[in-house]
Amino acid sequence: MARSHPLPVDPLAEAKRQWLAHGWTDAAGGMSLVVSVMRAQQLLLARVESTLKPFELSFARYEVLRLLAFSREGRLPLSSVVARLQVHATSVSSTADRLVRDGLVARHKHPHDGRAALLELTPTGRTLVEDATDALNREVFADPGISEDDATDLVAIVARMRKNAGDFADPRPQPEPLSP
Q: pLDDT at position 109, please?
């Protein structure tokens, strides 16, 4: 989604100028922030989706597979997937249905709760998510388009915003990840 011919003027700066010119001074900074973050999200998602396309994965499908691969046994209750991905249950259920259809995930009855579903990564799904992760690490995550210092600052700023919105509470110290 990056332009091959950059625009001569930053349209978001022009939008802020217009906000100020129309007397919306109190909202101009917030509008600029919101629209800037939304545009950055579009740019990053385009890179991610382009990288995942050869694997026939959307980012939503990738997230479910990656979450299952991170779990100890490659399986989680559907409700845990919903909670950890912070998306609506209907969206996760629909994504899971497509992953099951494609043989990447199996759906089982939960052993302790007959009403709940358990999602389990298949060997094919595990191979695919590892290959897709390698590609994402190489093509997107290793160089997101800003310096490491800026990335660290931006993550901290966005984390404060998310925390203030009630997205999460201060975490307890986490153990170091296990070696692969």
A: 87
